Model the fold of this input.
Amino acid sequence: MDTSMIIISIIAVIGTLIVAFAVSVWLPGIERKFVQARIQQRVGPPISSPGFMAPIKFFFKEAMTPNSPMPRLYNALPLISLIIVVFILLFIMPQMYFLGALASIIAIVGLLKVEEIMYMFMGSLSKSVLSVNMPFPDLVKGAKHVDATRSFIEELSTLRAFRLIAFGSFPLYIALFVPVVMAKSIYIGDIVAFQQLNGPVLFTVAGVIGAIVYFIGFMILLNEYPFAIMKTKADVIEGPLLEYMSKYRAYTYITRGFLIFVLASLFATMFLGTPPNIFSPGILITIAVAIIFPILMAVMSAFSPIFTFRQFYPVVAATSILGVLALVAAFITL
Amino acid sequence: MDNDNKVTTQVIETEVPMGTIHSAALEPYRLRLFVEDEIVRDAELTVGVNHRGIERIMEGLPVEKANSLTEKICGICSNSHIWNSCLVAEKGLEIDVPPRAEYIRIIMEELERLHSHLLYLAHGSEVLGHETFAMRLFYIRETVMELLRMIGGNRVQYGASIIGGVRPRCDLDEMRIQKIIEGMDYVEEKVLDFADRFIRDPMVMSRISGIAAITKEDARRLATTGPSLRATGIGEDLRLDMKQYEPFEFDVITQDTGDVKANLLMRVLEIPESIKIIRQAIKDLPDGKITNRSWEMQDTDIIRSYIEVPRGKLYHSYKIEDGRVRNSIVRTPSITNINTMEFACIGTHITDAQLAIVQCDPCFTCTDRAVQIVDQPFRKNRII
Done:
């Protein structure tokens, strides 16, 4: 590879990251202002507020020490999450396909799992004042069960994050393997090449079913209503993110916006054969998917209550079965 | 509060305390949930952090001033408090209230029931995680709030009732009557639309059906009151016994299951009944004066009055000495419903536990009535 190609590749990677960042900061605003607020017939926040202005605001807030046994590690976790999400985007860019195993579906699934695991760490390290630490005379004469182990509400989030890792993200991962089966390769480069030759996976029966399953998995991974049991306001409030403030909270906002874009890019790559590349017109498809997905997600969120595990388990089971059907359909069409 | 340990033979492994500041709670309260794998095995709910000592402040105040102060007990059922407080004085001083004033008081009370029930439904929807339903209910409620503002001058604490009738500013002229009629048509149409949409939503039904169910026997044992009692199938409504409600026809709504669904539907179905009462009151509104000023202050014994308010039975009592209030006691419905709230949490998922509390329509700030201070070395009690 000559020097000019290397420079162009570097520019493409950096440019794509910049575009991804520039789009991702508007996605939470589109989700909340243009869809949810309109459905709920209220004014809603300015479109720039949730994803763009709020992080800027938080960057200039005073950073206090969170209530955590390991505050530095706790504060570092959102940044680690952001880095992981950036790596996922890097590995699906065409310029990175030379990395071999890292640009494969196995690496992507692994990184997504690490991103999920971060919530477990966050939950177990957050000890907010809203439960055990509240200076309230609980253990007094006449109180019930004074010997029970006292648990922070964030620890509930940790348990829920663990359950989500165990079964919640099944649909997304099953859906990701539909293009793998059709392309007979785990490498992103091969899957993209297959679709450039045979047309997008989305335009097959297996692809359509897989896309539906992917979208449900996308919502679960983003902990969006109705799948937001890890951070439901009715009990755990913000859950693992409860103690984040100032720039660390800004990182959580940026990470969420970026994750929406990255998962949409992953869909565009796996189901439409258009990886994120600033020098390709396909980037417009990626951006379109990145806008359509939050809009659909906001519509679903606005019309559904939060699911407890009583609703969560059947939905995940049904979606996973649908995903398996998509895999079967993919095998049949081989 | 029920401090009996219901599960004495059960080993409770984990306690999850919540509050007194919590996003699902409109008011400050402490909730200790004793859980096994996120299923609540026992619960303890403690109030007391919002005590304002209103009864203590009322002590020695002139009756009229004390009555006005009762309105400050609650922002949602302020009219109920001032009405019942005036009823205490009217009962003790044997004051006849003009029929027109009685009708206006009924209209205010039923409007307050409408806004309380709509707030309940909206808050329940928020705790369910269904913000869209909550927003739409708040929009419907806005019509009722504006009607209350039109009559009383304020969106909360309207100060309608005074001893012997209602304030002159709360009299109803033709324009106001027309606006109330139009408002009731709008609210009825929108609430019925909402009810239709609500019960057809399978996701919402899945969240609320069979959750935090209370049987009739449990409701009786726990002294449940108000719509939460009627949701178990017991058709007990104090309005049936109140002479003020005698001219009006309405049905006492009951449900059978006593769960969150039954509680929510109770409020939805009570709304058309309140509208029915308001329409009758508007149609048959008597002419004449709205205040009886010909009464004399005198000393009385302790006088007690119970009325049915949106959350259940409300009790006020005091005696009058030299025109001043003595020994005032206020008991709100929520204090008798706290046992029910704790009981309803048992067996639910933690996320549903807040729903189990909300289903009883708590108003803890109103409930923080008295604090008992025990001076330990001398074992002397002081109530403030």
User: Anything to note?
Assistant: Residues 3-130+152-332 of chain A form one domain. Chain A has one domain: 3-130+152-332. The mean pLDDT of chain A is 93. Chain A touches chain B at residues 36, 39-42, 130-132, 134, 136, 138, 142-145, 147-153, 156, 159, 225-226, 228-229, 232-235, 237, 302-311 (CB under 8 Å).
